Fold this protein.
Amino acid sequence: MSKKIKGKEVKKAEYTIALAGNPNVGKSTIFNSLTGMHQHTGNWPGKTVANATGKMEYKDSIFKIVDIPGTYSIMSNSEEEEIARDYICFGNPDVTIIVLDATCMEKNINLLFQIMEITKNIIVCANLLDEAKKKKIKIDLKKLQEILGVPVIGTIAQKKKTLENLKECIYNVAKGKIKCKPNVVNYNNYIENQIAELIPKLKKEIKEEEKEKITKNILRWISLKIIEGNDKILNKIETELKINLKDIELSKNLTKKTELKEEKDKTDKKILKLIKKEKILEEQKKYTINISSQKRLKQKQNEKNIEKQNEKNIQNEETKQIKDIIIESIIHKSEEVSKKVCTYENEKYYNKQLKIDKILTSKKFGIPIMIIFLALIFWITIIGANYPSQILFKFFGWLQVKISEGLLYINSPLWIIDMLVNGIYQTLTWVISVMLPPMAIFFPLFTFLEDLGYLPRIAFNMDGFFKKACCSGKQMITMCMGFGCNACGVTGCRIIDSPRERLIAILTNNLVPCNRKISIFNNNIHHIYCRNNAGNRSIYFINTNSSGSNYIWNPS
């Protein structure tokens, strides 16, 4: 993009900014404030799986801001984590902003250290400072900046004035005026030595055209993934960055493999000796010895297979242990940093929430409380929706009469009136009258439960029951949404990690009675048993077709 200054066109510099962070830290609100783009700031299940983008103009530059999905980690267990990791690593953003929740820094810093392994141009945005103040939590932002080695900006996302410092920081980091030197997590000597050995080998494998993209941070991160032995990520690295990692993977276990080879040679020699002995014995004793030699060979072969299996198990156990060490190191570092920069006037402020959590997720009270909450929401939705539905029915009915009179006044044919008024108009207005009020009541109440943080507790309470049916506890959330609208419930299934469990959730969510189905059920139940003039019971079958007319079948 260019702009004119005194008759000359000056091209504006363009930069890409990635906006990352945990869910529910005000990331979408910051995105809206920076870009002016209206996006839903709540957190419907699966809402931010698709990347949202917007543009911000500041001084002489244009910034393309990408709101990547909220995630707690980038260890690639879920779809959101893969999207976040892939964009930060392979999307080549000029600056990555990591939004932290000031009320629980320890949990958020965990993600920060993981991203610091990949990129160095990082800005830390400590958001929700007003909430931290209410909870009497003080954060030393200057000290945090010194420890991390990257700029730290405090913000209150709802107040746009607090974002001016963030805009200035984005501009300076993108232009190179502020140099970021992130202090990454130092692991134990074994891992650090492995990283030091792998980085030079990786440099040799990088192609000339890819050298600009691959920084020292990315090389360190790739080395960690090789040590972890995460094949899924390594395959992605090979395809995206065009690095041959197969030879490097072999070389890192070279000492072990030579030892194993020596052991194999020894066993092979033993087997050859046994074979020679067996041949001599075969000449002496034809049948009996032949059988015993075969047994011995089979025994040796079985021992060899067991050794191979043990070797594989040892390697898997080693990679698992290394991954655990890496995760533990990040968690310990997060705890250490949090203790240094956060001070609490009331250190037991979190105890109240823990007590509430124990009650809401307990075996004794968890499910009864959940049933009461959901029953209350459904009761408010069903009873509360009757009044606006009646008002809409009356209004649309009055309007229908006026439209019909107007069409008759201009001498319109009856078939046009039937098609437009009694067909299209009536069907549309009935759908609006029946479906809009319950949805307008149900979804705000459901959002309120989410804002309270109760939905994850529902998923936790129901996880055991759903696991028995080979499903995920998260399906409970999508099924609850299905009562408002099946389409919303189905799209919400994206929050489920396992493809198999996600497919089960999508298929079974269609069986949940949504607003439209409930209205039809109510209508049918009302007419199933009713007394006729003679006082006998008659059974009716009601079929509501798309035009809204009812066909009633009376078998009596």
